[in-house]
Amino acid sequence: MKVIEPYTAVCLQTTPPVVLNNAELREAIRYVTGMFPWCTRTGAEPSLGVRGEEHRFAPVKLIATPEFGIFTFPGPKEKATDYILSNGLAVKIPGPETDMIAAKAKELDVFVAAMLYEYDPEWPDRYFNTMFLINPKGEIVVKHRKMYIPLFMSVDVSPHDFYDQYIERYGDSLDTFYPVGRTEIGNIGFCICTEGWFPENFRALALNGAEIVLHPNFNEPFYSPPMNTWEVLNRAAAINNMIYVIGCAVGDAKSARPDVASLKYPFRPQLFCPGDAMIVDYEGAIIARSPYPGETACWGTIRINELRKRRTDPWNYIAMLRTEPLHKHVYSKPLYPKNLFPKEQWKEVSEVIKRAPLDTIRRLQKEGVFETPDQ
């Protein structure tokens, strides 16, 4: 296999605006992509003493933007499914909006990762939270539809919510749910926000060949001390799976629009997502970081050839997995049910409690897996 020379990956930490229609979405795309040339010109790896200096100025080959790195969602009313679909905030991928990003990727000869709401004509009454990777030719080489939706704040649909219909259309395999793009800069997959809480998602990507996993992004209180959950999960995933984790982060999360009466005041703090973008290497070392809010970027050198050599070592956490027979018992019973909403997507944020796993919690208490707390 051809040796992949060291290169620089960039986490572009953004401060996205609230957008209310497709025209504003396209303007937000122009704004974010306008910063890409600066990312490629700057391209020097900060010297953190983690690795040698010989590849400090490796060329930029990857620009990663976070989940909601282009736009942010407004108040609960405007997050309703009908509102998003009727105002062109969910788009086809590929489509005219991704073509705008692709044009900049071709111009700069880089890979670009980004997120948009996706509309699939197969199911016109629902939409997906989708991340995708565009290569320097302007082609989408992999896209991932978020499966673990936060039960407390999002009306996005997961393929798991209408699993039987989904696999009939797209097949039932590791590639269906954990796609990995085989590229000339390494094998790349996505683990979006909430999915990072579940180590199975990182593990599935690694077992499907991923060498780099882009993991955007969390919200408070999971960035800050004393928990530092964001850092802990990124580093643990990198160590456990011998992968680079590119932790893309939003530098603030606006929810107010002074020019719109119903959105004059915010419904959450602006630093709900306070930055802290980072790049973690396959040993769990943080090799680049921007530990503060606002618009910025951090640069880290990716050494895929070193990672591949590391994976040949007998002390290999993937090769040691005893998936059968030991772990089959862990997953022999379903927990969160599939096909929870096979007919239609929920419409309002107030409805998301319908998908909370209360029945599963009660069953686990009944079975003695969870102890029932004293009343």
Textual characterization of the structure:
The chain has a single domain (7-366), classed as Carbon-nitrogen hydrolase (Nitrilase/N-carbamoyl-D-aminoacid amidohydrolase, 4-Layer Sandwich), CATH 3.60.110. The chain is 23% helix and 18% strand. The chain has 10 helices and 13 strands. Strands 1, 2, 3, 4, 5, 6 and 13 form a 7-stranded mixed sheet that branches. Helix 1 (22-33) runs parallel beside helix 4. The longest helix is centred in the first third of the chain and has 13 residues, at 96-108. The chain is globular and about 55 Å long.
Descriptive keywords:
375 residues; alpha/beta; Nitrilase/N-carbamoyl-D-aminoacid amidohydrolase; 7-stranded mixed sheet; 6-stranded mixed sheet; 23% helix; globular
SSE arrangement:
Blueprint: E1 7-13, H1 22-33, H2 36-42, E2 60-64, H3 81-86, E3 90-91, H4 96-108, E4 111-119, E5 127-134, E6 140-145, H5 163-170, H6 174-177, E7 181-183, E8 186-190, H7 199-207, E9 212-214, H8 229-241, E10 244-247, E11 277-280, E12 286-290, E13 296-302, H9 304-310, H10 358-366
Parallel strand pairs: 1-2, 2-4, 3-4, 8-9, 9-10
Antiparallel strand pairs: 1-13, 4-5, 5-6, 7-8, 10-11, 11-12
Helix pairs in contact: 1-4
**Oligomer status:** single chain
Question: What's the total number of strands?
Answer: 13
Strand content: 15-25%
- The CATH first-level class comes to Alpha Beta
CATH homologous superfamily, by name? Carbon-nitrogen hydrolase
**How many discrete domains?**
1
CATH topology, by name, is Nitrilase/N-carbamoyl-D-aminoacid amidohydrolase
Q: What level of helicity do the residues show?
A: 10-25%
Q: What's the architecture in CATH terms?
A: 4-Layer Sandwich
Distance between the termini: 61 Å
Average pLDDT score: 90
How many helical stretches? 10
Reported for the largest beta sheet, the result is:
7 strands, mixed
Give the overall shape.
Answer: globular
The low-confidence parts are 42-55
Radius of gyration: 20 Å
Helix-strand makeup class = alpha/beta
Order of helices and strands: EHHEHEHEEEHHEEHEHEEEEHH
